[in-house]
Records
---
Amino acid sequence: MFHESLRTLFWREFASIKQGAEYFHVSKPTITRWLDGTVPINPMAEKLLLIKALGYLPNDLRWSGFRICEKRAVFITPSGREFSPKELESFVFWRDEHRQFVEMYGHIEYPKVYPAKENVLPFRGGRRMNAAECLADCKLKVHEPVVICMRIYFSGYL
């Protein structure tokens, strides 16, 4: 990465040198040397900066302007609309409903704009989600769980 593009990308992603140093787990003088161009940037830090700048989306023109907010866990479109993971999961059903609605009644001229639904964390209030069912809990003969576990282990999934 060229020196100018590194500086531009760094200041677009971070508000201060301290914030960048905390993100890359390096000292402030190291960040200063990278930005001055006296020391070349670590290749892994360069890749990490590119991933952060892209927002974990592919480097493709069709994804230009889309972002992911890590703190709120929402997907942001170029027009500023936000989608939570649950909304994206149910998008297919909404699309089908919308198409049927348009076929029946036509388009609405000025639809309301709603904010993204709250993205609830998996662990809240000291309550944990239920664990997945274990193979050993199944009603199998005594030797069958061992055989199944051995098959899974030797197939490379464990």
---
Amino acid sequence: MRNKTRIADEHLRVLGLRPAYIGDQIMARRAQRTNPPEDVTDHHFLQFPQTLSDATRARYSTNLSLLLTKEIDIAPSFDWELDNRTGLAALIQEFLQYTHSDTSGVELFVCQGWARLFRIQEPVYREFLLEFYATVSYDPRKPLNDRRTFAFRLGVSRECSVIELATRVGIYTADETRSVHFPTFLADCLTDRSEDYNENTFWAEITGGVYTPSTARGGDDSVDYIPNVAPVDFYISPRITRIVRECLRRTCISYGH
């Protein structure tokens, strides 16, 4: 558990999310660690006995046979080079780019958020995603810079503003959020739920399975978050929802156990 917490803290620090229970001095020391540790070749975990009994050898062989039957789950990624070769890149880029204009048609703000979302290349951990989706809440009545707008859990309870979340995830840049038209752009986004929205369907789509209480497996980590599910309180059009779901399926979420 401690190792999981430590790893989670490191990744949260990379995202700009400061662990709530870690002091400034500890965070400062972590920030000074620029050189990775040297390879360790003489660790006792890497030292194996020269001779093994038949019973030990049989046990190792059994474990090895079991491991050889398992597959390493490599998350698929979107091949932009293929799109360039097939001539679809420009069409896809045009679809992903959204131009926000005023009532007279004058261009005010060009949104590159969808394109950046589809180009995320950093590792995305399924356990973090499930915990975030299961606990996130959004209050559209609060200002964009109000740190209480988004509440969620990643190891511990956290809060951040709309602008902080957008920049930390990498969807928008800090310069874009400082644009005078950025608040108007976000205010024009839809904030209503779809009439056909269903919590169970939402969870099935992001976890790759339907939650059935009577048959749920205790070892499935997605089940741990079901009782606390509090889906995001804003709505995206069904067409965009399908595209985002496929994007996440191809670039982010690993469904294997």
---
Amino acid sequence: MGGRGSRQASRRLARHFRRQVMSSLSSLARVALSLGLPSGVLDRGP
């Protein structure tokens, strides 16, 4: 098994995963806004 190829594949997978997470977060924010929730509830971070 070549280490370089697996590293490239993991990087590609991470990029795909990040894109899915961002799209799901934006859709979740859109649903919350349509329900009438204040946007401050969503970014209630540490």
